Structure formats: C-alpha cells, structure tokens
Amino acid sequence: MPEPAAPAAPFPLTALVGQSSLREALLLVAVDPSIGGVLVSGPRGTAKSTAARSLAGLLPDCPFVTLPLGASEERLIGALDIDEALRGGGVKFSPGLLARAHRGVLYVDEVNLLADSLVDVVLDVAASGINVVERDGVSHRHAARFMLVGTMNPEEGELRPQLLDRFGLMVALENCFDPQVRQQIVRTRMAFDLDPVAFHERYAQAQAQQRQRILDARAALSTVEIDDDVHDAVSALCIDAQVDGMRADLIMLRAARALAALEASPSLPSSPKLSVARRHVERVADLVLRHRRRAPATVSSATLPPDTDSPAPHAREPDSRPSGSAAPPCGDDACDWGYLPPEATGTTRVKGVVALTSKKR
C-alpha cells in the first residue's frame, strides 16, 4: 500500500506581495502570542488564508490547526475518553483542537459565522494560554499557547462588538486596483504553483532570516523596557479613541514591545539595552485601535506639513460678475459654480379692459 503523500509546503510568508500590515501583525503575534491573535477582515481572494498558513510554515515544529464551523465544544476543548472508560481504563482526558494547536497556529476561517460560545472559549484560552476543562466528572487543565488567526468577509456578516474587542489586533484588507501590483501577485503565485520546490529554494534564505528574527525576539521579549514616556503615549492614544476598558492599553504595550524586540533582533547580542520607543507605539496603534475605536480617527495638526499651495481660508478670487448683478443666495463659494445672473422680462400693455359688475363676477 503506497504511503500517503506529504502535505505540500505552504506559500512562503516572505514571498507575499504587498499586505505589509498583515505580515507585520502576524509577526507580532508570533513573537508574543499573549497579544491575543489577529482578526483579518477582507473580501475574497486577498490572501487571508494563505498568510495564516504561511505563518505556520515559517516557524519550526509549528502545527497548523483549523477550527471548522461545525465543530462541537467537546471537539474544541477536549472531553472524557469514552473508549478508554468502557475498556475499564478509568477516567482519561481526550485532548481537543486547542491541545493540538499548542505552540502552533489555530486558524478560524469565517470566524464571524462561528457559534459565539466557541468564539468565547477560543478567545479566553488565547489570552490566558491555559485550557481548563471541568465536565463529566473530569477536571483537567493544560497549556494551550497558540497564535490565533481569524478571518472574515464583512459581506457575510459582522462579529459582535463584545467578541471583536477581544481580538488583539485587526487588519482590514481591500481589493487591489493597481495593475502593476496585481500582475506581480499573479506572476508570483503562478511561479509557486508551477514548481513549489524551486520556489521555496528561492526564498529559503529570506525565510531562515525571518525565522531567526522571531526566535531572537521571543528570547529577548522579557528584557525589553517600557518607560513612562511610552506609557503616556499609549494612554493618550486610547483616550483619544474613546476605547472601552483597559484591554487596548495592555495590548498596545505588548505589541509595541514585540515590535521593538523584532526590530532589534539582528543586533540583539550587542544591544546593551532594549526599550520601546514612541515610534513603536505609533506603528502598532492602528492595528490595536481599528476595531475598538469609538471616536473618529484624528490626526494632530502638529504632525501635518504646512500646505503652501492652498489659498488662505479667507482669500477669494476677484469677483468677475458684472457690476450691479445680485450675488447668489448661497454664501458658500461652491454655490457660484454654474451661476447665471437674472434677466429682465418684458411686459405688454393691454387696452379696452372693462371691469365686470359685481353680479357677473
């Protein structure tokens, strides 16, 4: 009997064209899974699933586990091993999908269509890193530290705000309308499909360097310092966005810390001190606040360059209308477009008009 074929290697993460925000979010979660996972929202065919599988393919001994929409809670968290109990072997725990995803990637496609009870469990375990099962006389707990990646198409329904807030980061993808980028994406994908082995060899060095960066950043994560200036920046951003609770503050600090460790990983052995800077906070702020923001995004005027080409707010072009013509009723300059002055209408005098008596009226 022939042996089953080995699963094909996923598309290399470093070969993804564009999608820089998605790649950065995945790398941050790979460095620190306690960030709470990544929610990827976007239309069909925007590499959401490909990127999730690529993350697992980048790391060594990283299982990739898919949570199907029809899964039961017992299959997700684990349950009593009935076969073992019937054989008289006593009570034994049968691990579920969360146990299989330990030290790997748990992928939930169309998470907005998954039962809310399952989403609650997944997010709880993703944040704590521990799965606790207490049912049918079984009390069991085990480590379940995984990188959670959920994808959804907003055209098929939204995720409840209570669940949305519990995803650490969110990336919103859009369709690409740049012909050059589209052609590059298609050429890259066709090259991978034509010869996956040669394609992987071409990106082997980039994949190895990215893998080592993640491993170095993980090792250095506990040494990264966060000073008061960074705390001030995080608080100001979260207050400005009017987020609920303190989850956004915590996740923003974790994400900024992971980014600082990731950026410094090539020079970690010679770095005497590693700390988070404001630029790290600014880089991750949109990923953290996108799905939590209750106030419209604002940009500080101090960060905007002066626009010297635009006229002053009260400067107006000379009035080219004929003298004596009335101004349009609207005071806004935009109302002048297409304006025509009123023209006088002639009248005709009528002769021989006799007024009717009151009885004939």
Automatic annotation (TrEMBL):
Annotated GO MF terms: ATP binding; ATP hydrolysis activity
InterPro entries: AAA+_ATPase, ATPase_dyneun-rel_AAA, ChlI/MoxR_AAA_lid, Mg-chelatase_DI-like, P-loop_NTPase
Annotated AAA+ ATPase domain residues: 34-177
CDD domains per UniProt: AAA
Source organism, top-level taxon: Bacteria
Record region (Disordered): 295-349
Protein name per UniProt: Magnesium chelatase
Pfam families: AAA_5, AAA_lid_2
UniProt feature coiled coil, ranges: none
